[in-house]
Design goal:
about 450 residues; binds adenosine-5'-triphosphate; binds magnesium ion; cytoplasm; Pro-tRNA-ligase_IIa; nucleotide-binding; Pro-tRNA_synthetase; Proline--tRNA ligase
């Protein structure tokens, strides 16, 4: 992508409304635009990062055996009356009426709808286990939307729903998502701690929140420090190995870790000195087992091996991609701007032409751009007629992992400078060596 033809509305001034660094940087880097309170558009740079995050989530959901669908944002109130949640959900639910005055709502979550899909088609335990997920917008009329897309009213959620014949099978489904979440966040370059959590209005008795430790987090959390050094399960993990997965989950739940709602001061005091970590955290994912809470009232039953009908055991598993993006920034930035982990960066590298219009600089810039895009890399080529200083500032602000600087002096020797955004390390390479390095 040539920057001269891209849409990157950078802000020079610090936006006054931004209270935390990720919100400030997302606005300054032209990633998002607020359309009304807690409702955002994603501009091209932001959209690229969001899609990288979604791709990783999708990849790991699929690896764990979940199957992607797409359910609508607008739901009929009838389903929620069946489960009993239409009245319970309260003012966070945006309620609307269609032209026939039928009550509708903008979905804050999809347990009811997916249970309806399940009961319409699945009759036998032989069709289980089943896990269906989608990545779709949700709406919750939050009392205090704030921090940009970190707590917005309209936000994207990946929500998966598992269906099993009994509690043991449902625990295996839960464990699959637990391990998938460990892998998902690790691939995004962030370290998360699974913490015992309250099940809230969804109900049930087995639940973990996946928390990124960050000073600006809204949750107060308590955990054993060693979690931060635990090794994340590899890509070769066998998700069908029931005992193997249980072993991983047992390890990742063996030490103290709880959000403030579940915190037990006495138990925490027993953690050895020096290992107690009390911090603030950002909830980026949340998994629940809730048994037959929805299947019972909504009549989602399957025939078991005993020839009798059983209400299906369910769990739900959420990740908020539009919250994950600012959470990554909270964990990875410096004074100059964002520092993207390579796996979620909007571009793999940027080429900075210090002197657009100079024949040698343009020639080398074009050669690099053609060769690297040809090699399948996502390249942002700053070919604009701008001061070099402004181009460096833009590149640092938007946080692309590698910068290749083409300047009149070094190109006279056939060389370019390669800079790593995270370490600041610089190296001179010939144009050819730079192409080889990144192809
Ligand atoms: P919170 O405690 O922050 O209000 P929640 O517990 O209500 O979140 P869940 O119902 O567990 O949220 O939804 C699953 C995931 O959806 C959360 O872990 C989070 O990543 C994301 N999410 C929830 N609410 C929002 C929001 N208002 N803005 C952005 N993402 C959200
Ligand atoms: Mg909430
Ligand atoms: Mg919560
Ligand atoms: Mg939650």
């Amino acid at each position: 992508m040539r920057l001269s033809r891209f849409f990157l509305p950078i802000l020079k001034e610090n936006p006054k409304e931004a209270e935390i660094v990720s919100h400030r940087l997302m606005l300054r880097a032209g990633m998002i635009r607020q359309q009304s309170a807690g409702i955002y558009s994603w501009l091209p740079l932001g959209k690229r990062v969001l899609e990288k995050v979604n791709d990783i989530i999708r990849d790991e959901q699929n690896r764990a055996g979940a199957i992607e669908i797409l359910m609508p944002t607008i739901q009929s109130a009838e389903l929620w009356q069946e489960s009993g949640r239409y009245d319970d959900y309260g003012r966070e639910m945006l309620r609307i009426a269609d032209r026939q005055e039928r009550p509708m709502l903008y979905g804050p979550t999809n347990e009811e709808m997916v249970t309806d899909i399940f009961r319409s088609y699945v009759r036998s335990y032989k069709d289980l286990p089943l896990n269906l997920y989608h990545i779709q917008l949700k709406f919750r009329d939050e009392i205090r939307p704030r921090f940009g897309t970190m707590r917005s009213r309209e936000f994207l959620m990946k929500d998966a729903y598992s269906f099993d014949i009994d509690q043991d099978a449902a625990r295996h489904a839960y464990n699959k998502m637990f391990v998938a979440y460990l892998r998902t966040f690790a691939r995004m370059g962030i370290s998360v701690v699974p913490m015992r959590a309250d099940t809230g209005p969804i109900g049930g008795d087995l639940s973990h929140e996946f928390i990124i430790l960050a000073d600006t987090g809204e949750s107060e959390v308590f955990c054993h420090r060693d979690y931060l050094d635990f090794e994340v399960p590899g890509a070769d993990t066998d998700f069908d190995d029931v005992a193997g997965l249980q072993g991983i989950v047992d390890k990742w739940t063996s030490l103290y870790a709880a959000t403030s709602e579940m915190h037990d001061e006495k138990e925490f005091a027993r953690v050895e000195d020096g290992a107690r970590l009390s911090a603030r955290g950002i909830e980026v994912g949340h998994i629940f087992y809730f048994g037959t809470k929805y299947s019972e009232p909504m009549g989602a039953k399957v025939m078991g091996p005993d020839g009798k009908e059983h209400p299906v055991h369910m769990g739900s598993y959420g990740i908020g991609p539009t919250r994950v993006v600012p959470a990554i920034i909270e964990a990875s930035h410096d004074d100059a701007g964002i520092i993207w982990p390579e796996s979620v960066a909007p571009f793999d590298l940027s080429i900075i032409n210090m002197k657009a219009g100079d024949e040698a600089c343009d020639g080398a810039g074009d050669t690099l751009y053609d060769a690297l895009t040809g090699a399948g890399r996502d390249v942002l080529y700053d070919d604009r007629d701008e001061r070099a200083g402004a181009k460096f500032a833009t590149a640092d602000l938007i946080g692309v992992p590698w910068q290749i600087v083409v300047g009149p002096r070094s190109i006279a020797n056939g060389e370019v400078e390669v800079k790593n955004r995270r370490t600041g390390g610089r190296e001179n390479l010939t144009v050819e060596a730079a192409i080889n390095r990144f192809s």
